[in-house]
Design brief:
This protein has about 425 residues and is an alpha/beta fold. It has nine helices and 17 strands. The strands form five sheets. The protein has a six-stranded mixed beta sheet with strand order 7-17-13-8-12-11. Strands 3, 6, 14, 15 and 16 form a five-stranded mixed beta sheet that branches. Strands 1-2 form a two-stranded parallel sheet. Helix 3 links the parallel strand 1 and strand 2. Helix 1 packs antiparallel against helix 2, helix 3 crosses helix 6 and helix 4 packs across helix 6.
């Protein structure tokens, strides 16, 4: 059976090549042929899995026959929502199952197989309203991602290529990497100046979540929708926020804590391990770029809350409750900026247990809603179905270095990303 499927795939490739070489080729015909190829690829992968299982069970694998069934409903509407969609996908992937015609991305006269592809590995693309439902759920659970500066990409783009200002200092002649203005009386002549730029390129990465559903759960569309949506929202939100804070930049975003603009405040002399004191907060706030303070947010490890509530302001040989501690107790803010407990922050005493940031200085890109080319896949796994959700995203801090102010002490720098050093 597998050999026959591979032969059919070769034939489809030959037909597609011939179509592409026709000077009067019709775009719809080319697209339809590509869809047939995707379907055949999905069938081949599913047949390989069935053959492998058959070898284990020592039983012959049944050929895959998945005829398309016509639904009387609007081909783009899922009145039962996500649960009904997932049931249809699961049914299409079972041996001998049928493909609901609403799963097809383009009309096909004789489509058959395990799935209509939206990627090289097969699968079914979510309708726009279902994608929106999942993404809204994910962003409602996240507390970092919704605050960053997002740039949605179009359907034919997988990266953002732009120019960022190459500014590392604010002294005359350094602002915007070289722009300088003069008062007329300062000099008889004015030296020409221009900004300096650095190339900023961010390519999409894939964030994937896998959810398993038993046959019992698949029979209940309402429960399936609720559980899958919740699982997707919570897991994807956590991984997205964690990457924005801690990402290595290798196959994932560059995190706020790993970018070149980060400033790390040194602990106080004699400061006990794993503690946060009044002076730490003062110095972190002092190193935040003034014009970015209005958007600033504090992210902390939840274990630090009691320490923030009990911070002491040293006075002489004694001390008194810090006004910052009073503010935190009353308003859950520091310097009137929100303090958010987040599980992606490091454990107390490690770099990243407390982070002061202007999220708008972090640039993110993604494929928004209906432009997502790969949204959900499913495969047959014994008596369960494994649903795989794919969200395409990447991000990085806009600046790649801290800034030396126009007038400041030697070695004094400012940034939109400030943390507390190890203690």
């Amino acid at each position: 059976m597998l050999k026959a499927l591979l032969a059919k795939l070769d034939a489809l490739y030959a037909e597609a090549k011939a179509l592409n070489e026709k000077p009067d080729a019709i775009l719809e015909e080319i697209q339809a042929k590509q869809d047939e190829i995707k379907v055949m690829k999905a069938k081949i992968e599913a047949q390989k899995e069935l053959d492998a299982q058959a070898a284990i069970d020592n039983t012959p694998a049944e050929p895959i026959i998945a005829p398309v069934v016509t639904s009387p409903r609007d081909a783009k509407k899922w009145k039962g929502g996500l649960g009904e969609f997932l049931q249809a996908v699961a049914g299409a992937y079972k041996p001998g199952g049928q493909i609901d015609n609403r799963l097809l991305t383009t009309p096909q006269a004789a489509a058959s197989g395990m799935g209509v592809g939206i990627g090289a590995d097969g699968g079914f693309m979510l309708d726009g309203d279902l994608i929106e439902e999942l993404q809204k759920g994910m962003l409602s659970e996240a507390s970092v991602a919704p605050l960053i500066r997002m740039v949605p990409l179009g359907p034919n783009s997988n990266s953002l290529k732009t120019w960022g200002v190459d500014e590392t200092a604010r002294a005359d002649g350094s602002r915007w990497g070289g722009v300088q203005a003069y008062w007329a009386a300062e000099a008889a002549t004015v030296t020409a100046s221009k900004p300096s730029w650095r190339k900023l390129e961010i390519e999409l990465e894939k964030l994937m979540a896998i959810c398993y559903a038993t046959d019992e759960l698949l029979n209940d569309a309402t429960a399936l929708r609720a559980i899958i949506s919740l699982a997707y929202a919570e897991e994807m939100a956590y991984k997205l926020d964690d990457a924005i804070i801690n990402g290595s930049g290798i196959g994932q975003p560059v995190g706020m804590l790993t970018g070149g603009a980060l400033i790390s405040i040194t602990k106080e002399t004699g400061q006990p391990n794993d503690t946060v004191v009044h002076e730490n907060i003062q110095k972190m706030w002092n190193r935040m770029i003034a014009r970015n303070r209005k958007n600033a947010v504090w992210y902390i490890n939840q274990e630090l809350e009691p320490q923030l509530e009990n911070m002491v302001l040293p006075i002489g040989t004694g001390g008194a409750i810090s006004p910052l501690a009073k503010e935190f107790i009353e308003k859950r803010t520091l310097y009137n900026r929100p303090v958010i407990a987040h599980e992606s922050c490091a454990k107390p005493g490690d770099v990243g247990d407390i982070l002061l940031t202007d999220p708008k200085q972090y640039l993110g890109i993604d494929k928004e809603n209906v432009q997502a080319t790969e949204s959900i896949h499913v495969r047959f796994l014994y008596d369960e179905m494994a649903f795989r959700f794919i969200y395409r995203f990447n991000g990085a801090p806009y600046r790649n270095s801290a800034i030396t102010p126009a007038k400041g002490s030697s070695g004094y720098t400012l940034s939109s990303f400030v943390t507390l050093g190890a203690r």
